[in-house]
Design brief:
The complex is a heterotrimer. Chain A is mainly alpha-helical. Chain A has 17 helices and no strands. Helices cover 71% and strands 0% of the residues of chain A. Helix content of chain C is 77%, strand content 1%. The chains are: A mainly alpha, B alpha/beta, C mainly alpha. Chains B and C meet through β1, α2, α3 and α4 of B and α1, α2, α7 and α13 of C.
Chain lengths: 318, 333, 278
């Protein structure tokens, strides 16, 4: 996970030419091929084969997402060295930030009631949540540019939930590094009890929902504002950045922002309110926030889709 | 000592690339680490060239024929595996830096203009790179701006220029330091018909005045016809033809294409040296081999046999000729 | 024509240097054409600094200390504003070189009468200059509002600027060595990432070296990574002439080492252009 733009720079924005062919829309046709060869009835075919009853059931969608996962992963494996390099690269990036905190706590054992184990747990949850979100739905970080460039056309021609389809059609390989980092760090450094471990995984999933919902909403601004790529990306970066610092260091007004506009507060109070001492009220609030954000993001995306202007942008390619 | 009239000469110029081939999978990469299997690619197989000063030579061939490898050796980018080359009295790979002051190049779609700045800024930078005097630079710039008609947009950011305008700036930029030999790699690629014609005309106008040696590669036969005196065709790393453009046409233009529009039924008896290329309801396309039958005889014969409404006689396009040369080589390498 | 050519080959040193100066100038111009874009991209830096302000005011208050590791809170936050600005504006030259090697642009640059590494150096410094100024405006504004003006003197600024230029040079040559590894390596991005992260963490970007455990601090203080962030920034906010001289000496020493290394890699790499083809 990278909390700042510069954290993503080297790893994520494709400094490598072959890295870029792994990702992006160009990859889509081969994804279809992969689906077709792996499973005779790929998700698309299944949908098209029964026009009388469009597949809307949970199982249908679960298998749809699963097939995309497999295809995405298979594609990453085409460039194995690059893929492994990226996964380890992200783990290294996360490790750097964690090391900062370890150095910090070597000097200051407690800050505002937060201890070393709390910050390690926070980083583990953020990494797990961020990693789950962007390894499953890696394309949402490009949503704004997809909208602006009119690349949504491709997805609109399929009989599937548009947002889910866009989201799943790309995997961010570095996000798998985050998942691995989160799990390793938590289980090795914190040595949790079974209850803590369960709560940890559950919070990771809820954090993923918050990352997902917020990112989708931020990127949906592109429907309204036009080229909002930069703003949308920075919004997500901001959420991540705030989420990785102890809630305790922020004052009242900031906290209000962190529980409303930039909902990082739900994530960075997890270590203290969920894993250390279970607070059912906070946990219910967290779950409600996660569900609400995901639902809202879906509604907002769908509502703004009406404003979609397709590919009317003249592209300058140099 | 090199003859001062010669701009480029090569003798038996050869380049072999050795690439380690990696087998797929982990096992393969471990194996190839210890026992790499090397594949040899003979890109250029003993080329002899002789280009005189002031000549405009089209250097053509299908993709992968060894064109760009040859140019890279002539500009000092690549060391040859064996053979000799001499460009303006320099051995390119040995005297690369000295040579670089005297040659110019427009390489494919590699732009040397700064995208966000006007061409004038790139020109200033190039003047510094080539260590030109202020006065010399000013004169040269004025000449090129006029010759290539780039004045109107010389101070606009490159990103705002059309592709044709950009290419004219690109070529002018590569001529700034007054190179004696210029390598033009696909100068009209990606341009529309009008822009292409425009670039050709400016190039021609410039060279009529400057008389520089031009080494041109292009897939566009129009460029070759319009600009080159001589054409060298290369395929599979070897020169398969080296002749004046005029001669090329002369030798290969012994076939004429006759297009006919006829009314009524077409019943053309077999005639030696006349081949039907295409036949439609009221149209007929014939190829006449003028070495077998005189064009006059052929036409009068046709006019006698058919009720002709319209007739046109044309040369075989150069494009076809070149394709035929490539293909012949393809069959018997 | 030949006369002119010969004259050019033996041109004076001033002309040889002028081409690199022009390169620097033109890089600055290009980056300024992007200024608006760049500033909005770096607005995120304001968030980073805001969080730092919160973290360190909480820390100083919780510790009840006026000075931590020899830094007052004002010095600490300006230290971080400067290191963050350096970090945000460090040109990604290693990645550019990687690109040039793979796309063949490096090969084409061989037909021009300039030295590729020095050309890149001019570009690197130009980019760093514009980027750093932009970053510092944003990071500095946040910190200024929070803790007041920077704790600098005219002397510490002058000397700080000198070490900053040396630091940038040192970083450049290290990046050249890493970037040129593209001649041999399939994917260079993990190595670039490793370098940048080690530099950030051990170089004292997030935490001054004075707060490191003792042994680590001593080791890092000698290593090249210790000279890129900590060296110059310490000179700015808390000048000690003794430390300054040490920093400069170490910067020069490591720069020489990396120039030698990069030179060796470049020579071997350019020879490899012949093997690769293009």
């Amino acid at each position: 996970m990278s909390t700042e733009d510069r954290g993503t720079q080297d790893c994520r924005d494709g400094t490598l030419a072959d890295g870029q062919t792994v990702r992006g829309l160009h990859a889509i046709p081969s994804v279809q091929v992969q689906c077709g060869t792996d499973v005779p009835n790929g998700p698309e075919e299944r949908g098209a084969g029964r026009p009388s009853r469009p597949p809307r059931g949970f199982r249908s969608y679960a298998s749809f997402v699963y097939e995309y996962m497999k295809a995405n992963l298979a594609m990453q494996m085409e460039y194995r060295a690059t893929f492994i390099g990226r996964v380890f690269g992200m783990m290294l990036n996360d490790a750097m930030w964690l090391s900062f905190w370890l150095l910090y706590f070597a000097r200051f054992p407690v800050v505002r009631g937060w201890e070393r184990a709390d910050v390690i747990t926070l980083w583990a949850i953020c990494a797990l949540g961020f990693g789950l979100c962007f390894s499953l739905f890696g394309n949402i970080s490009r949503l704004a540019s997809i909208v602006v460039r009119g690349e949504l056309d491709f997805y609109l021609t399929y009989p599937r939930h548009v947002l889910l389809h866009v989201a799943t059609s790309r995997m961010d390989p570095t996000a798998l590094g985050d998942v691995a980092f989160g799990l390793v760090v938590f289980f090795v450094l914190v040595k949790p009890t079974v209850t803590q471990a369960l709560l940890f995984v559950l919070s990771g999933v809820l954090a993923a929902c918050i990352f997902f919902g917020f990112t989708v909403v931020a990127h949906s601004l592109a429907f309204v504002l036009g080229s909002s790529e930069l703003l949308s990306e920075q919004a997500t970066s901001m959420l991540i950045h705030f989420a990785t610092y102890p809630l305790g260091i922020f004052d009242g007004p900031t906290k209000v922002v962190l529980f409303t506009l930039i909902p990082a507060g739900f994530i960075n109070s997890i270590p203290v309110s969920v894993v250390r001492g279970f607070d059912p009220v906070f946990f219910a609030g967290l779950a409600a926030a996660a569900v609400l954000l995901v639902t809202a993001s879906d509604r907002i995306f769908k509502a703004l889709l009406r404003k979609y202007e397709s590919g009317n942008l003249i592209q300058v390619r140099m | 000592m090199v003859d001062m009239a010669t701009a480029i000469s090569t003798k038996n110029l050869t380049k072999v690339f050795r690439t380690a081939t990696k087998e797929p999978g982990l096992k393969g990469s471990i194996r190839s680490t210890f026992r790499p299997s090397v594949r040899e690619i003979h890109a250029v197989k003993g080329i002899d060239l002789e280009v005189e000063r002031g000549e405009v030579v089209a250097f053509i061939g299908p993709n992968g024929a060894g064109k760009s490898t040859t140019i890279k050796m002539l500009t000092g980018i690549l060391y040859p595996t064996s053979g000799e080359a001499n460009v303006l009295g320099f051995v390119p790979w040995r005297d690369r830096e000295s040579l670089s002051y005297k040659i110019g190049s427009v390489f494919g779609q590699k732009s040397q203009l700064w995208y966000h700045l006007p061409p004038s800024d790139t020109f200033n930078l190039l003047a510094k790179i080539y260590e030109m005097d202020r006065g010399e630079y000013g004169k040269r710039k004025d000449f090129l701006v006029q010759a290539f008609e780039i004045g109107p947009f010389f101070n606009q950011p490159v990103r705002k220029l059309s592709l044709g305008q950009r290419m004219r700036c690109e070529i002018a930029a590569s001529l700034l330091h007054g190179p004696e030999v210029i390598f033009l790699d696909e100068p009209t690629i990606g341009l529309d018909v009008v822009a292409r014609q425009n670039v050709r005309q400016t190039l021609k106008r410039w060279n009529d005045e400057e008389k520089a040696t031009v080494f041109l590669t292009s897939h566009d036969v129009g460029d070759i016809e319009y600009l080159a005196d001589r054409v060298i065709i290369i395929n599979h790393g070897q020169v398969v033809m080296d002749d004046k453009v005029k001669n090329l046409k002369y030798h290969y233009l012994n076939k004429k294409i006759v297009d006919l529009r006829v009314s009524g039924e077409v019943k053309l008896p077999a005639l030696e040296g006349v081949k039907i290329v295409k036949q439609a309801k009221s149209g007929l396309k014939l190829e006449v081999d003028t070495e077998v039958i005189d064009i006059n005889a052929a036409v009068s014969h046709i006019l006698k046999e058919c009720e002709v409404q319209d007739i046109s006689i044309s040369d075989r396009p150069l494009e076809d000729i070149i394709a035929a040369i490539y293909q012949r080589e393809e069959v018997a390498p | 024509m030949t006369e002119v050519g010969r004259h050019r080959q033996g041109a004076s040193w001033s002309k040889k240097i002028a081409k690199y100066v022009e390169m620097l100038r033109i890089t600055v111009l290009t980056d300024l054409a992007y200024a608006y874009d760049m500033l909005s991209r770096q607005l995120f830096l304001a968030v980073v600094m805001f969080v730092f302000v919160k973290l360190w005011s909480a820390t100083y208050r919780w510790e009840g200390a006026v000075s931590i590791g020899g830094y007052t809170m004002r010095q600490m936050l300006w230290y971080l504003a400067l290191t963050e600005s350096i970090s945000m504006s460090t040109p990604r030259t290693a990645a550019d070189i990687d690109d040039d090697v793979r796309s063949g642009s490096l090969a084409y640059s061989l037909t021009k009468p300039y030295k590729y590494p020095w050309f890149l150096y001019a570009k690197h410094m130009g980019k760093a200059l514009v980027g750093f100024s932009g970053s510092l405006i944003i990071a500095g504004a946040v910190v200024w509002i929070a803790v007041g003006p920077p704790p600098v003197t005219a002397l510490s600024c002058a000397l700080g600027l000198l070490t900053a230029l040396l630091a940038c040079t040192l970083d450049f040559w290290a990046q050249v060595a890493i970037g040129l590894s593209a001649f041999w390596i399939e994917d260079g991005s993990p190595y670039r990432l490793l370098y940048s992260r080690v530099k950030m963490l051990l170089g004292g970007m997030l935490l001054p070296l004075e707060l490191f455990p003792d042994v680590l601090r001593r080791v890092v203080a000698f290593l090249p990574v210790g000279q890129i962030y900590h060296g110059p920034v310490k000179t700015f906010v808390s000048l000690s002439l003794h430390e300054f001289v040490g920093t400069v000496a170490k910067q020069v020493l490591w720069t020489i080492v990396f120039i030698a290394l990069a030179g060796a890699v470049y020579k071997a790499g350019v020879r490899r252009v012949n093997v690769h083809g293009g």
